[in-house]
Write a structure and sequence with these properties.
single chain, 409 residues, alpha/beta, three-stranded mixed β-sheet, 11 strands, 10% strand, binds 2-acetamido-2-deoxy-beta-D-glucopyranose, Nucleotide-diphossugar_trans, Glyco_trans_34
């Protein structure tokens, strides 16, 4: 996997502390815009590309080279291995165990340093909002499209893995389980169900990895397992839940509810505990944006991108979806120095609650769902382009038209 050069994503630099403070001050409004990164020590591999054909895969399918397990004992044969948060005895030596497992599965070792598994999910039951499940399906399709075009595996979890870790706490249990289920992946990338990828081309750089309360990348490592245990210890299943609620409320004066929550917990760990050393606050590029500001600009962004396409013949060339990365590079060159017209990478529907419909009273339910439908059509146009179609009207996802040859010359 190749990560695009993104140096031109630079926005005026602010200190991490200033960014954190602005994030903290926005907690009350529910729009946390801290760009945070978590990382642990980068272990170096030399990624070599694997080229396999279907028939080669079939021939090797009963050997250890394909997707079959090694007969040798490994981490999974340890009866003490627990996928749960706060397991006892706690996991120790995960980095070494992962490396041993990769040695037993040599077909999966190449590429491991950049391999990503995306984890997302929603509640186990049906949505209360009548169109909630429809919106969640569209949001999930958007993530599947994004992952397919970047070779990322995706795990959608809709089981409450820890009965008491409801709402925003549920993700920690899913992320922890995904780390143990995917020793072949270096990164676990959590994305909230109500976030949409609105730049399907962009892939964040491998180092340092993005981390955000609602969108975060964690290195699959012992450090991350320990960190998740610590972070989860602020949650409702913990005997210290009430105490953490008091601590967080006293530190963050404008926190709007007294219970401990994941985002203020994360910021607390960043500011007050040793964990901050390995949490990186990203402010170099436009990682995630607030829907109310972004969605009204989609028509203008579309018009500007079309103008570039009219001028650059390469960008109008039809191509197979698999080779889109080269075209993404051409886009990068064209967009250099034009940050204001760049598509936002992720649009987050903060305050909208598509499933329950209990959206922030600031917005009407219609404005939330209309904005989601529009953002998802905007993203879908980037996907459909490779399939020869487009939605001419972002407000009308049911209508598509075929794209003529050399469009939009
Ligand atoms: C499992 O954990 C228990 C308690 O910590 C320990 O006594 C036992 O030796 C461990 N078993 C294995 C196979 O590591
Ligand atoms: C879109 O572009 C037009 C023309 O440049 C401008 O007047 C308008 O304010 C822009 N709209 C938004 C939402 O940015």
């Amino acid at each position: 996997m190749v990560f695009p050069d993104h140096s031109h994503y630079a926005i005026p630099k602010r200190s991490n502390a200033a960014l954190l403070l602005s994030a903290v001050s926005r907690l009350g409004g529910g729009a946390l815009v801290a760009f945070m990164f978590i990382w642990t020590i980068w272990s170096s591999f030399n990624p070599t590309p694997i080229t396999r054909t279907l028939s080669a895969l079939a021939e090797t399918s009963h050997t250890n080279l394909g997707r079959h397990d090694s007969p040798e004992r490994n981490i999974y044969d340890d009866p003490n291995l627990s996928y749960a948060l706060g397991s006892s005895p706690p996991m120790k030596g995960w980095n070494e165990k992962r490396q041993e497992w990769l040695k037993q599965h040599p077909s999966l070792a190449p590429g491991a340093p950049t391999r990503i598994v995306m984890v997302t999910g929603s509640q186990p039951g049906p949505c209360k909002n009548p169109i909630g499940d429809h919106l969640l399906l569209k949001l999930f399709k958007n993530k599947v499209d994004y992952c397919r075009s970047h070779g990322i595996d995706i795990f959608y979890n809709n089981a409450l893995l820890h009965p008491q870790m409801f709402s925003f706490w549920a993700k920690m249990a899913a992320v922890r389980a995904a780390m143990l289920a995917h020793p072949e992946a270096e990164w676990i990338w959590w994305v909230d169900s109500d976030a949409a990828f609105t730049d399907m081309d962009f892939l964040p750089p491998p180092l340092p990895p993005p981390q955000h309360g609602r969108v975060f990348l964690l290195r699959n490592s012992q450090w991350a397992l320990d960190f998740l245990d610590m972070w989860a210890s602020m949650g409702p299943q913990s005997p210290d839940y009430a105490k953490w609620g008091q601590t967080l409320s006293s530190v963050f004066k404008d926190k709007i509810f007294p219970e401990s929550d994941d985002q203020s917990g994360l910021i607390y760990l960043y500011l007050k505990e040793k964990w901050g050393e390995k949490i990186y606050v990203e402010d170099e590029y436009y990682f995630e944006g607030y829907w109310l500001e972004i969605v009204p600009t989609f028509e203008n962004i579309t018009a500007r991108y079309m103008e570039i396409e009219r001028n650059v013949g390469t960008l109008r060339r039809r191509h197979a979806e698999k080779v889109s990365e080269g075209y993404a590079r051409v886009w990068e060159e064209q967009l250099k120095g034009k940050e204001d017209l760049r598509r936002p990478f992720i649009t987050h529907f903060t305050g909208c609650q598509p499933c329950t419909g209990n959206h922030n009273r600031m917005y009407s339910g219609d404005s939330c769902s209309d904005a989601m439908i529009k953002a998802l059509a905007f993203a879908d146009n980037q996907v459909l382009k490779n399939y020869g179609f487009m939605h001419p009207d972002l407000h009308d996802p049911s209508t598509v038209i075929p794209l003529p040859f050399d469009y939009p010359a």
